[in-house]
Amino acid sequence: MVLTPVLAWAALGIFGAPVGFQTEPVPQVQLKFPPKPADTPPSSDFMAWHGWQYLQGAAATEPQIYDSQGDWGEIQAKYTTASKAEKPAQWKMKIVLFTRTESDDRDGHGVLRENRQTIEATQLNQVLEAIERFKAWVVAKFNGRVVIVPDLSVESEWMRGSAKGNDCWTSGKEFAQRYFEARINGGNYEAEDKQFRGPYNSVFYVVPGSLAESIPATVVNGTPVGGLPVSLLGVDGLPKSFERSLQDLWLDQVSWQARRLGYKSATETAGVGGGDDPWPTVTNLDPASAQTRLSRMSSTLELAPAVADPPVGKTWQLAPAGASMANDPDRGQVLRIVEASGERAGGTTLPARSDGMPIAKLDATSTLSFSVKSTSQDPIAIRLQSSDGKMMWVSIGRDPILVSPVPNVAVVSMPFSPNGQWQKISVDLKKAAAAAGLTNVTQMAIEPTPNAKLAGKMRPDPVDYQFDEFKFSSDAGLPALGPVEASATSDDDEARALYAAKTRTPDTELGKLLKDKSTLVRLNAVDAYKVVKDPSVETALVSESMDLDPTIAALALEALMNEGSDNAVSTVEHSVALGLSDYVKQTAARLLALTHEAKMLEYVSLLFNNPSWQAKLSDVESLALLATPQADIMRQAFVNNKDPEIKLAVTRCADPAQEGDIRMLVWSAVNEPSDMVRADSCIKLIQSPTASARTEGYKGVRDDSEFVRLRVTEYLSASAKEDGREALRLAVADRSPAVRAAALRGFAALDKGATAEEVSNVMDDQDPDVQLALIDLSKKSALKLPQKTVDAMLASPDPEVSSAAKGLGH
After folding, report:
1. Residue 350: is its pLDDT beyond 90?
2. Whole-model pTM above 0.85?
3. Helical pair 659-671 and 629-637, crossing angle rounded to 10 deg
4. Where are the alpha helices (DSSP H) in 456-531?
């Protein structure tokens, strides 16, 4: 066991020697402005290809339906001069690029599904280049009066979440809170290492893949936080410009900061009144005085852009899709579509009639037919669009079934086998088109459906399809794929997965599915054995615990614990060291810790030296579950780790009744660089049954950081203990109005309320939040306010204050 040196080190009480944390280096990129738009038209052989039979002899033209980079010439010219401006205001921004995400949850039929997305090297460079252009755009747009000062990092560990749960990056709030709360400071605190951790003006984070909806913005530690996918889909299922989304998100955060300072919002549509420069104001993170905030209540902060944004360009083909003509030994010249990138966001527009007439009128020629061959597992689709902009897709193969599919998307899935042989697709669009509102077709494109974009690539290989003979006719179509029906013996992976998802009793067929060739099927079969006990499949579950898919392997460990045999538990024990992924090792440690058996410390402790910060975080939580003296000492040792989220976990798992934890918390409450760690250390100490420990915790109301003082004071308000009265007396005199208001709410929660003397310093306070809290205190504790105070509240320009003051009874 590795316990001896670790326990000895921890027992010495050496809190503060950081160990075991690696920072991912950020690749360096140069600022590159896009070249002037020069749309490269399709080749002549593409336009003249014999396969466009739907044109019926009409001349071909190529619609430009995809957005492309606009003309950045004006921005580039302005940047050249504006970048030389002296003493610009600084917008401090934390930016984190998450390069690996995975989520799992059940779809509407109960099938468990995984979604993994990555940002690989080429795409990472593209994102970094976009951020460089965003910085240049800010300088140019506002004439060098403000610059983005980024604190950029790359998070390469897998971020896991539930697709429907609040812990996923798509939810915005819970994931952002969990990841950033210990990593960014909300107030000024100068740590011994002099490393800047905040406060920031705002935070961005970028996640891989596509999303159909924007990630909701949130606030962490008093800082606006916003997330962006690499590809955000519009209502038409097409990707929006990442750079434009980046710009829009930042301007929203500028408005948030303006509202914090008392303005209604910020706007870039008007000039600056009186020639004032708004940027020193909006970048200032100190709270505005009450008088200043009140004077701004009816005003908008005018940002005065110096140059317009580049107009969005248009193109007929969007990367990473590529179209070319290829020679087929059986058919001669055919159309080839290739997606070589890991991102599924591109597409190719097919020729339309140059006379503007529809290529199909669906009341007469509703059947689209073409030939196709491929060996790609990832489906591709034909997008059809009508003259009034309505659209639908014909998916070649089943459209991906998702936990949260794109709403209101019309897709017809046609049977297709990726066996490299030519196959005929013939689909009667009449019924589906009527439901989608299409009466004709004027444009077609080859691209992934919106759901396929959200699903991402199923295989790392390029998506490669060949096509021939597109035409519309009145012929009968072939049957489309219908709803999935559960079957253990179907050739359809979805049918077998649904069977596994629905089976919750011992079943021979279910056991066979543990060895299925499909990852989706094995995932659902293994998941079933979390509740189904069947000793006959134990050997298969042991095998699945070493599956290359981390989720399958982790579920197999849960299933083995459900079996409960000595061999099954032994497999879980050994998986802490031998699991093929960190997630599997973490799962094994957690399952063993949930037994609450002291002997499991031997295995749980193996995560201590794991290089993954998430493995260490999991170890802290698992050690807390064991709750033995040795486990507690080892858990305390993790406070020496440099990663702030691990330190926060150590703090929150601490037992303030234990002397060792108290010593650790007292040290952390004063010395930890992270605001959240210091604040929660104080809160834990306040919960201690030891009076001297509580005294140390109450000192948090005097921390250098406003955020810490506010969080501790808000805790005092929520806990409502008379023991905290002296701390509330200090907090109500704080220089921060937010802290003063929280202190008043704390007094209001106490049975004895507050005396006039205890809150005398806020009787003339003009801050609306403080006034509202004082009004609430007066009503709850029968505290009589001076008439002068009441009159000032009734005359407040803030309507909420003046309205609340009417009930004071004077």
Report:
1. yes
2. yes
3. 10
4. 493-502, 508-512, 519-528
